[in-house]
Write a structure and sequence with these properties.
- The complex is a heterodimer of chains A (278) and B (243).
- Chain A has 278 residues and is α/β, with parallel strands linked by helices.
- Chain A has a single domain, classed as 3-Layer(aba) Sandwich (Rossmann fold), CATH 3.40.50.300.
- Chain A is built from 9 helices and 12 strands.
- Chain A has helices at residues 46-54, 78-84, 101-110, 119-132, 150-164, 180-197, 208-214, 233-242, 245-251, and strands at residues 7-17, 20-31, 35-39, 60-68, 71-72, 86-89, 96-100, 143-144, 168-172, 200-204, 218-223, 226-231.
- In chain A, the strands form 3 sheets. A 6-stranded mixed beta sheet of chain A has the order 6-9-10-3-11-12, sandwiched between helices.
- In chain A, helix 5 (150-164) packs parallel to helix 6.
- Chain B is an alpha/beta fold and 243 residues long.
- Chain B has one domain (3-186).
- Helix content of chain B is 18%, strand content 54%.
- Chain B contains 4 helices and 13 strands.
- Chain B has helices at residues 188-195, 201-213, 217-221, 226-242; strands at residues 3-6, 12-14, 18-22, 26-44, 50-69, 75-83, 88-97, 100-109, 115-124, 129-138, 145-155, 162-170, 175-185.
- In chain B, strands 1, 2, 3, 4, 5, 6, 7, 8, 9, 10, 11, 12 and 13 form a 13-stranded parallel beta sheet that branches.
- In chain B, helix 2 (201-213) runs antiparallel to helix 4 (226-242).
- The longest helix of chain B is centred in the last third of the chain and has 17 residues, at 226-242.
- Classes of the chains: A alpha/beta (278), B alpha/beta (243).
- At the A-B interface, helix 2, strand 7 and helix 3 of A face helix 1 and helix 2 of B.
Chain lengths: 278, 243
């Protein structure tokens, strides 16, 4: 019998947003139990990679494939990808006013079960995870991310991950907005789930502090839509110490600079109290 | 709170708190409410098109009328209510815009110190047309009266299918009046977020529409058979999402 290794494979992935090509041939394989750090300067394709794997409609795959345990992910709808075991903890989680966390999570859990989860079992799991992440006890009855602080939203993403128990989780700057204690709580929860279910992880972060806690087994640096260097956790620490300039020099590459719309100021026509133009 | 089921077009007089179940094609309701506090829930449970005509007046009383119109059939509604001296009328409406729905509220502050407050929650689905004229009129002599309207309309897919027109006719100076209308579609990013947790479009819509349309649990508890009506309302919303 041939065992199908549980893995997420990305092969020669090219992705565009509108007319602009963002990813220009990404090759990456994540096996269960591995932790991959995805690093790189802002605006060079890290979040695009994670959002594309999850199926965000803003991105078009122009070439390449994504396979989950051998199955074609690109042929799946977003909800199907989730039910197959992919999870994306978002950089900017959306607010859903009017829908409580408990209704949302119960529906999400039931969507992947043949028989609905019992209320007792659900409440027990929810309360256990809320307590683990030291979140407010009334969280279950609050609307999803509505009125949450930045840190609460990030913890709520991890809470959802713990409840849904995916096979592969992608964490997009989950540590930004978290204080030192919360980063420790979140990383402990991630590692606990990894131990329990052999979770595979892709983690985008700019900070060595988080990677010191979760200790990646692999690391990749994306510049201008391509993985330009790979390594283990030593690479993370080198980048934290030296930045990216040594890479640009060594590989003779240039990163994409984040472009912002140019704003022209016409000054003000308002008059100051003396009646002259301000 | 007692419940009546209207099964024919004979005019029905409402002069007390009631849960009113609509279950026929043509319905005529007349209000005569005075000297007290009353709560009325109008729940459309008719499996077919409905024409609802309402008229009447309230005097020296505080009235709350709530409408749950969640059926997937055509609806034509005209409601005209006169609010007399020292009376307050609060109207809460919930419409699920499927098929063709034409609704007119014609609410009059007839005498001094009268108050009208109407809030509308509307969801308009694709392949439907929804039209509402919400008219508040403060007549001359109705001093110190108030008339406030607010409407929230959520359209699924095509925003052109909904028309909500707030109108204020004011013929007296010493009054307070306002109207507001918010109309929009579901944020694509919210749908992606929900999908990314395993919910398909139908399941996501069910959660959003239930939260948007359904009054709180407390609301139902104040009515006889409130729980039963709540369950029926949730079923209707879910059924429409499955269409």
């Amino acid at each position: 019998m041939v065992m199908n290794m549980q893995k997420l494979e990305i092969k020669d992935l090219h992705v565009s947003a509108g007319e602009k090509e963002i990813l220009k041939g990404i090759d990456l394989t994540v096996e269960k139990g591995e932790i991959h750090a995805i690093m790189g300067p802002n605006g060079n394709g890290k979040s695009t990679l994670l959002q594309t794997i999850m199926g965000h409609p803003a991105y078009t795959v122009t070439k390449g494939e994504i396979l989950l345990n051998g199955e074609d992910v690109l042929a799946m709808s977003v909800d199907e990808r989730s039910r197959k075991g992919l999870f994306l903890a978002m950089q900017y989680p959306k607010e859903i006013a009017g829908v409580t966390n408990s209704d949302f999570l119960r529906a999400a859990i039931n969507s992947r079960l043949e028989k609905n989860i019992s209320l007792f079992k659900f409440i027990k799991a929810m309360e256990g995870n809320i307590s683990k992440l030291k979140m407010k006890e009334d969280l279950a009855h609050r609307f999803v991310n509505d009125g949450f602080s930045g840190g609460e939203k990030k913890r709520n993403e991890i809470l959802q991950m713990l409840m849904l128990e995916p096979e592969f989780a992608m964490l997009d700057e989950i540590d930004s907005g978290l204080d030192v204690d919360a980063i420790k709580l979140v990383s402990d929860a991630i590692l606990e789930l990894k131990e329990k279910s052999d979770l595979g992880l892709m983690i985008v972060s700019h900070y060595e502090r988080f990677f010191t806690l979760v200790r990646p087994t692999h690391s990749h640096v994306i510049v201008d839509g391509k993985i330009v260097v790979e390594g283990d956790d030593e690479l993370v620490y080198k980048i934290d110490t030296d930045g990216y300039d040594w890479l640009y020099d060594e590989l003779k590459i240039q990163p994409v600079r984040e472009s912002r719309p140019l704003v022209y100021s016409l000054g003000t026509c308002a008059r100051n109290p003396r009646g002259k133009n301000a | 709170m007692p419940e009546i089921i209207i099964r024919d077009s004979q005019p029905v007089l409402i002069d007390r708190s009631l849960t009113v179940i609509l279950d026929c094609e043509k319905i005529n309701i007349e209000y005569d409410l005075k000297d007290g506090e009353y709560a009325i829930l109008i729940f459309n449970d008719h499996h077919g098109n409905v024409t609802l005509n309402e008229s009447g007046k309230i005097s020296h009383s505080h009235i709350q009328i709530s409408y749950l119109q969640l059926e997937k059939y055509d609806l034509k509604q005209y409601s005209r209510i006169d609010v007399m001296k020292d009376s307050q009328l609060e109207v809460h409406t919930t419409y699920l815009g499927t098929a063709k729905k034409d609704v007119v509220f014609d609410l009059f502050n007839r005498e001094s110190d009268s108050s009208v407050n109407i809030s509308n929650n509307i969801v308009c689905l694709d392949q439907s047309s929804f039209s509402m004229d919400c008219i508040g009129t403060i007549v001359k002599g109705a001093k110190r009266s108030k008339c406030h309207q607010s409407s929230h309309c959520l359209t699924i897919d095509d925003p052109k299918k909904a028309r909500v027109l707030p109108v204020l006719n004011i013929d007296e100076n010493d009054v307070k009046a306002s109207h507001s209308l918010a109309m929009g579609t579901i944020d694509e990013e919210v749908l992606f977020y929900m999908n990314s947790r395993g919910l398909n479009k139908k399941e996501s819509l069910q959660l959003i529409l239930r939260s948007y349309l359904m009054p709180s649990d407390d609301f139902y508890e104040s009515f006889d058979n409130g729980r039963k009506i709540q369950e029926a309302a949730v079923r209707k919303v879910d059924e429409v999402c499955s269409m």
